[in-house]
Amino acid sequence: CVVNNDYWASQRGLIARDVDRYRTQENLPARYFFAIARFIEFKNLPGLIRAYALYHTEAGSDPFGLVLCGSGPLERELRSLVGELGLEGVVRFPGFVQIDRLPIFYSLASCFVFPSSHFEPWGLVANEAMASSLPVLISQQCGCSEDLVKPGENGFTFDPADVENLAQLMLNVAALNPDQLIDMGKVSEAIVADHSCQIAA
Asked: The pTM is what?
């Protein structure tokens, strides 16, 4: 299960040359957790939002934001939940994003979260995030979690039913300094390099 790692890495390099412009263009916070998914039940986005709400309560004066890319039948429910939890304007919904813009969201994120509650055979968005040099928080229900996550080195796995644990992992990641996040992202890149189109071929 592979993606074109070179595409995501090269796009990250281009975006790094003008971070402020791209951040303003997409109205992205300075630091944020990022998820991308179809807005359907088994992607567990309500669980992610509830975990983020717990994180946000404990995070202090300068919390990471949460950016959820995608669309689908649960969008109204997700937006309503964000309102109920008092997170309007904090949780952002850029909508469905095409591949030409998607590298911006990966490249400017602080950490990728993949919260699926039902079994996913793999989950190529994890490859995309790691090729974009991101630390990752990946549900144990995702088939890629055993191969792509080295706990404590490039991220963590979690039980998607345990909202409190995911919130604590988000707190742990957000407590790291920028250099530590960069180092975790480099480990992600090294791991996913073994899952390239060339090696698969």
From this structure: 0.97
